[in-house]
Write a structure and sequence with these properties.
Blueprint (H helix, E strand, L loop, with lengths): L1 E6 L4 H13 L2 E7 L7 H8 L8 E5 L5 H5 L6 E4 L6 H6 L1 H22 L3 E7 L22 H20 L2 E7 L2 E2 L8 H10 L4 E4 L5 E2 L2 E2 H12 L6 E6 L5 E2 H12 L5 E4 L14 H7 L7 H15 L1 E2 L2 E2 L2
Parallel strand pairs: 1-2, 1-4, 2-3, 4-5, 5-6, 6-11, 7-10, 8-13
Antiparallel strand pairs: 9-12, 14-15
Helix pairs in contact: 1-8, 5-6, 7-9, 9-11
């Protein structure tokens, strides 16, 4: 069986990916996560609790910036690198730490891969690298005009991957993820917050007039993309946009959540935030062609599944929901 390392494996996307791989039954999963206090460690541990006893799963509490922690890892075939300091707005107040974790951390993993002769590396980048580019929809060749330290740290990591791929023959595949949501979503993200607010009659903070729009991508579609990348062998370095290619406005998103919940939202309008981009829109032609990526969830379908997960877990954030 292949052995796959998932960095940030106790987080939102990482834990969903671990579950998918273990369900497939054709690989072992090693999860490394430092359980960063960006949100409660208890939520991350809850993410991986369902498969902690699976003999094909191993959890290591460790930091990718610590060589001693990396040296505890067993022999590996593939690295799926999801660990990162996340969020555009928080990066504005902590830019050095974002660069340290996202850029230097990726380089340390690449050096680890070189030393261990690990030849496949899948990297989770972000749609934020496009920044305020007007070339809509964004293709992988669109100009990168980042407007946050988070975005620039991801670009630096992408470029480091290109260097290691060229020098050391490590296949480095970049997945530029567009606003991922779904079961297990981080509690700080908009959709999770909006559900919590609507279901508990708490005002939603809306920055701007609500006409900004995003290419929201359901997590199960992202897992399909990662699986496609794991099976891709035709090039040593590629970048793929992973989105829905169907952006919706913030106002439309709130209306959809109201429909799914059967309740009206309370709105608290605030001014625009620095670092926020006005739109994201993925051209996913390349991913469709090369890794058979075919997102199948509309925003309504994805929100229904997200809501069902919330009801099943009896919580949205720290508040009980009906």
């Amino acid at each position: 069986m292949k052995v796959i390392l998932i960095t940030g494996g106790a987080g939102f996307i990482g834990s969903n990916l671990a579950r998918r791989i273990l369900q497939n039954g054709d690989a072992r999963v090693i999860c490394i996560d430092n359980l960063d206090n960006f949100y409660p460690r208890s939520k991350k541990l809850a993410n991986i609790e369902p498969f902690r006893k699976n003999t094909n799963f191993k959890f290591i509490e460790g930091d990718i910036l610590n060589p001693e922690h990396l040296n505890t890892l067993p022999d590996l075939d593939v690295i799926v690198h999801l660990a990162a300091k996340t969020g555009v707005r928080p990066s504005l107040s902590d830019p050095v730490n974002y660069y340290q974790v996202n850029s230097i951390g990726t380089q340390m993993l690449l050096e680890f891969a070189r030393e261990r002769s690990i030849s496949k590396f899948v990297f989770a980048s972000s749609s934020s690298v496009y920044g305020v580019s007007n070339e809509l929809p964004w293709s992988e060749q669109s100009e990168l005009l980042p407007i946050s330290p988070y975005a620039s740290s991801k670009i630096a990591a992408e470029m480091m991957g290109r260097v290691y791929s060229s020098l050391y023959k490590i296949q480095f595949l970049v997945l530029r993820l567009f606003t991922v949501y779904g079961p297990g979503q981080r509690p700080d993200l908009a959709i999770q917050n909006f559900f919590e607010a609507v279901l508990n009659d708490i005002p939603i903070s809306v920055f701007g007039d609500g006409n900004s729009w995003r290419d929201y991508t359901f997590v199960e579609d992202v897992l399909d993309a990662i699986e496609g990348a794991l099976n891709f062998s035709s090039a040593m370095y590629e970048i793929f946009n992973i989105g829905s290619q169907n952006p919706v406005s913030l106002n439309q998103l709130i209306e959809e959540i109201e429909i799914v919940c059967g309740r009206k939202a309370l709105i608290n309008r605030l001014s625009y935030q620095n670092g926020d981009v006005p739109y994201t829109f993925a051209d996913i032609t390349k991913a469709k062609t090369l890794i058979n990526y075919n997102p199948s969830h509309s925003i309504r379908q994805g929100l229904i599944k997200h809501h069902s997960w919330l009801k099943k877990n009896k919580q949205a954030g720290t508040h009980l929901i009906s």
